[in-house]
Design a protein that fits this description.
single chain; alpha+beta; 7-stranded mixed sheet; 2 helices; 7 strands; globular
């Protein structure tokens, strides 16, 4: 597993080549990280639909207060056969719209670096006293 940080100029760095099976991306200047678990490459995936889902998701999150909790049933968005879904982790309800906005921004870097790869993900929150963090949300991004 590789662990990286976002570059200072807001470009996200992901290693070249196909994605690792398990990859942790720390979101700079936040207490959040995204664990990506590659599901596999999908030939002929509509990358325009992928980009649209992520950008529409970012725009949707901006309609809510940053610290407002996401709904208990989670959130999903589908376009052109590409589905992105997220929900709260078991017994946790810390995931906010502001956090989801930040995660979507990091996710955008992943899909640009690894076109055609579907994935599952965990959203991790870190505390100063616990470098392992804990999962506050989970979901998937896949072609249907």
């Amino acid at each position: 597993m590789t662990k990286t940080h976002q570059l200072p100029d807001s470009l996200q760095y992901f290693p070249p080549g196909p994605p690792e099976d398990h990859y942790l991306h720390i979101l700079e200047d936040t207490d959040l990280g995204v664990e990506f678990f590659s599901i596999g490459r999908i030939p002929h995936r509509d990358e325009g639909a992928v980009k649209k889902v992520i950008l529409d998701g970012i725009h949707e999150t901006l309609r809510y207060r940053v610290n407002a909790k996401m709904p208990g049933h989670g959130w999903k968005l589908e376009e052109g056969g590409f589905l992105l879904s997220v929900g709260h982790a078991a017994r946790q309800s810390e995931l906010t719209w502001g956090m989801w906005t930040i995660v979507l921004t990091g996710m955008n870097g992943y899909v640009q670096a690894y076109p055609g790869y579907d994935f599952q993900f965990n959203i991790r929150k870190y505390m100063e006293e616990d470098i392992r963090g804990y999962v506050i949300g989970a979901g998937f991004a896949k072609t249907r």
